[in-house]
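Sample intake sheet
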Amino acid sequence: MSPSPGMLITLEGIEGAGKSTVARRVCAWLGRHAIQATLTREPGGTALAERVRQIVLERGQERLSAVTETLLMFAARGIHVENLIRPALERGEWIVCDRFTDATRAYQGGGRGVDPRLIESLAAHVQGGVQPHCTLLLDLPVPMGLERARSRQAGAADRIEAETQAFFERVRGAYLELARREPQRIHVIDASVPLEAVARQVEAVLERLPFPGRSGSGIGGPMGGETA
């Protein structure tokens, strides 16, 4: 008997929304419910895709146009999908991914103004039918997100982190528009509240996913009272 199809859960949001923290907690919560999930990220996720990530984010001397940036994002995504995501899903495994194609729609489409028709054409060719089953959009006001992100930065901001507040306002608006279009897949989580409250919202979404073994502690318990 072939394995049941796996599930792809993605996390989205602007800088400082707490995606990486919540992604780790989602994996832990699934583990307590007898679901082993692989945590990954975009751009990146495999050794080769991480090399493309470095090109995208580094603040070098050569300019990257918005379209070139988009093409690099999809190059990294193609490597990631082919070598990690698709094989895992076909084995019936679950994937938790920190950003996916919605990030390109929001950052390069909304933020940079890249033609959405180009983005959707690339998505169709690169993903080959791989789509998130559930997306958690961690939403918060841009000034709050930027303040959080900059307070955590260990070094210089990368190309995208160094963008203006106006850029991130466009990104946030694009994310919220995506959520309005696909409310069954994209769940808006208020990330402006303490992490314990974020966790309760996330758990409410996860509880509705189709998987066995719902016993055990919820995601809210071990998260504590940090901010996302």
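Comment: Residues 213-228 have pLDDT under 50 and may be disordered. The first strand starts at residue 8 and ends at 12.
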